[in-house]
Amino acid sequence: xxxxxxxxxxxxxxxxxxxxxxxxxxxxxxxxxxxxxxxxxxxxxxxxxxxxxxxxxxxxxxxxxxxxxxxxxxxxxxxxxxxxxxxxxxxxxxxxxxxxxxxxxxxxxxxxxxxxxxxxxxxxxxxxxxxxxxxxxxxxxxxxxxxxxxxxxxxxxxxxxxxxxxxxxxxxxxxxxxxxxxxxxxxxxxxxxxx
Length: 195
Known about the structure:
Blueprint: H1 8-34, H2 37-40, H3 47-62, H4 70-74, H5 79-92, H6 101-109, H7 122-170, H8 180-194
Helix pairs in contact: 3-5, 5-6
């Protein structure tokens, strides 16, 4: 038995609603996968630009193996491309007089994507971040090693100087008394260094 006070008819109704929503969802999913991203997802006033870009990319991929010679670059567009470009210009909906083919074709072919400015994948971004972090760590480590060496060098010089002073001050006479002449010379030298 179902929920309190709701019979089989209510359960049947819920089941039918669920199946109907499922069918609608599947239909939407199938429609969106079939539609081109250039025609549906962009505003109408920019549609011609995306279509022109799509056509240019298609042509570019076809001709990757066949680079154009200098003579072919200066030649006018083939008949197929002219018709596509004209259609794009007409679709743009220019209210003025129809443009000549050359102006229209330059407009259609002027859209370019710089190869260096392609978006980076998340993997590439992560790789760059990792390299930056590694570089920072290496720089910190180098700085630490440099400071450590400087500190050790300073300590070594300090100990050496201290040892020399100790030797001078600890010298004794033959009778075992402290050598006051050496101590006085050391104090004089110290005063002269300060001045």
